[in-house]
């Protein structure tokens, strides 16, 4: 099956929790803290693999999750990091988020993009030792990995795209000049999916795409071609085929007019690209017939059945493609870098103040907030992160309820924030 558009859900791995542990020895009645930290969760990455033909595997399996990190252990044994989950996608895949923002345009083999970050591992109690806190009894929980919905869309990478009515001879031509073997039959819409063929011309090769036949109204959803017009968007040259064999459908000049109009309706920039007009099935015509078709200058008649005119057409196509390559820089892919946001947002919801963002989550992400030592540490962390001042600036007053995730506490801005900043390194 040719699947070129899918929506998937990816979730990075959760971070492992830190552990509270003590090494008790003679002379150390409280014990020496030796709890290890949890491992980070695995990231989710998309990587281009030229051997992957379509997005079929993601149609069948739309949900993917990276492994989580393992928990820390005593004796300063840190948890193992979760393995990265690598999802392989075809050349020409674009990645959009649910807001319609294009996250990446992947056009090179091996190009990759990080789409979901693994959760940070929680620190064990040994990481919280300080001159004023010799034997901490609290730890951090691991953070949840990111979960995102992504729209993947594949657009064929081809030097030239074959455009024409159903049964215009596109599939027959590509099967003659390349190793591609599309289905060929004498009824409309035989070609149901795009086909790629590599054409060897002299000492060079070009990639030719056969697009399912277009009919009038294709850009508005008629026929099959509208589903695949986007596969022409990366082509440098458009090879437009007109069929003179069935004048009961449309004359060749009318076919050319309709095809150009449908391209313009889909993408005006696409319609302005260099195009070559070719008349297929020329074995049914003579030279005078070709001249009378009123298709303009530089029209190339050919017969894929007999081979007449095919080499001339392909050499001309290769020359135009080469000229475009020299004059227009090669299309480059891109990856939109979106750094992890370490800030926070505060908003009023009903009778509560709600703090959102990774800084808020990390401020309260301890294993047991009923532990007085842990509660004191959180209060100081809320000050050092700027959240307390942010609440004051937003209008929060002492006694107001503040929610961070599932935790609700009473706001008390009178908090001592001495010397706790050294623990906040990432």
What report would you give on this structure?
With 426 residues, this protein is an alpha/beta fold. The protein folds into three domains: 5-154, GTP1/OBG domain (Spo0b-associated Gtp-binding Protein, Chain: A), CATH 2.70.210; 160-327, Rossmann fold (3-Layer(aba) Sandwich); 345-424, GTP-binding protein OBG, C-terminal domain (GMP Synthetase, Chain A, domain 3, 2-Layer Sandwich), CATH 3.30.300. Helices cover 19% and strands 25% of the residues. It is built from nine helices and 21 strands. It has a six-stranded mixed beta sheet with strand order 5-1-10-7-8-17. A six-stranded mixed beta sheet has the order 12-13-11-14-15-16, with helices on both faces. It has a four-stranded mixed beta sheet with strand order 18-19-20-21. β18 and β19 form a beta hairpin. The protein is elongated, with a radius of gyration of 32 Å. Residues 416-426 have low confidence and may be disordered.
Radius of gyration (Å):
32 Å
The level 1 CATH classification of the largest domain is: Alpha Beta
Task: Say which CATH homologous superfamily of the largest domain is assigned.
Answer: P-loop containing nucleotide triphosphate hydrolases
Instruction: Quickly count the helices.
Output: 9
Rounded mean pLDDT is: 83
String of helices and strands:
EEEEHEEEEEEEHEEEHHEHEHEEEHHHEE
How much helix is in the residues? Answer: 10-25%
Number of distinct beta strands: 21
What is the straight-line distance between the termini? 46 Å
Number of domain modules: 3
